Amino acid sequence: MATKTQMDSAREGIVTRELSAVAKDEGIPEKDLLALVASGQAVIPANIRHKSLKPHGVGRGLRTKINVNLGISGDCADYGVELEKADLAAKFDAEAIMDLSNYGKTHEFRAKLVERSPAMIGTVPVYDAVGYLEKDLKDITAQDFLDVVRCHAEEGVDFMTIHAGVNRRAADVFLEGKRQMNIVSRGGSLLFAWMKMTGNENPFYEHYDELLDILHEYDVTISLGDALRPGSIRDSTDGAQIAELIELGNLTRRAWKKGVQVMVEGPGHMSMDEIAANMKLEKRLCSGAPFYVLGPLVTDIAPGYDHITSAIGGAIAAANGADFLCYVTPAEHLRLPDLSDVKEGIVAAKIAAHAADLAKGVKGARDRDFRMGEARRAFDWDGMFRLAIDGEKAKAYYKSVPAHDPRRCSMCGKMCAVRTMNRILNGEDVSLEPDGKE
Fold first, then answer.
1. Burial call 344-365: b when 16+ CB within 10 Å, e when fewer
2. How far is CA 46 from CA 86, 125, 151, 220, 256, in A?
């Protein structure tokens, strides 16, 4: 029996188990979510073989989701550490994990990830091609690339980044533009190099229909990769980026015709004043498909702090229509992130996503903030720690420099504004004397 994707089912008015769970989680009517998935305005990445998945929706009107990148490299090939990163992502309720491993045989690690992780799992198959096939890049064939896609789909991957938009037309625009940073997308650079060495068209573009057939068979969501995303502020919103985005819009509509769910990936480095316009441009050119952004990083001069530059850009992007944020860690541009880097990146991305949801008026987004305000007014420290994105860190800070009175923090003592107002509005005197009555 042929697979029905989430999009196929939604178009037929069928409420799948995954759609029902997402509607309940988001607090929206199933009929509203059906319409969004049917039209491509929202996706529910859910490979039919990912049995441990907790489904999530990505798209218009839904909470902004975050992705955590992990995976080994030739210099750091410890799968145990990467699984610890996956566990950390689960602890902080990250909705997605991308395995970006680019060294050796990655099948065993990916199988464990799919088996144990409730998060959506994503990959970039072109990374795996060299190690999986044991061929030099120029010797890989178009069919080889498709075979790796099928392998990942069979393993249960929920979404795949496919750089199908960097075709010959877009590549010509890139070459004419003489960029500062050229192509900073790892997958995009590999495909461009393959095209130059072989003289062939991008295999994922040339054989796009066959690619879609594979993805449809397992209900894998295609995440159309932005191979020509800007890698520096100087390159943002240039001809190459826009030329590729036009191609991605066409590829989006072709995938929808086949019932394949689509996300579109967005810019990397971009000053703040360009972000809102870029979000609107993507939504227009790609017919409202969910937008998945890396950052954007709003300045190039903060290595070691790029989780902050990314969170700033991500909050602005999501407030203006982006649906999915890829986290960035303090190690970006410097090294493979360790566990501490991963935590900092996750928390920064969660803050950005939630801040954007407040601005977008996502249903229920403000409830937690309102409860935090009540807990602060009541000096309910345990309540504050439970509501915090990183309650463990908040609690450790509070306890590290204890106040004389444990009901307050050590910042203001008896001059605490909350204490003053609670007492005076309750008809009590306010005493600042050391031995004053509480």
1. bbbbbbbbbbbbbbeebebeeb
2. 18, 17, 16, 7, 16
pTM given for the model: 0.95
At 144, the amino acid letter reads D
- Alpha-carbon gap, residue 92 to 88, rounded angstroms: 6
**Are both 370 and 343 inside the same structural domain?**
no
CA distances from 186 to 63, 103, 153, 237, 311 (A): 29, 13, 21, 19, 22
Asked if the structure places residue 17 within a domain, the reply is no
**Amino acid 73: pLDDT:** 72
User: Which DSSP string corresponds to 61-106?
Assistant: TSPPEEEEEE---SS---HHHHHHHHHHHHHTT-SEEEE---SS--
Domain around 370: 366-400
**242 plus 126 within the same structural domain:** yes
Residue 7 lies in a domain: no
In this prediction, residue 79 carries a pLDDT of 82
Give yes or no for a contact between 302 and 345, defined as CB atoms under 8 angstroms apart: no
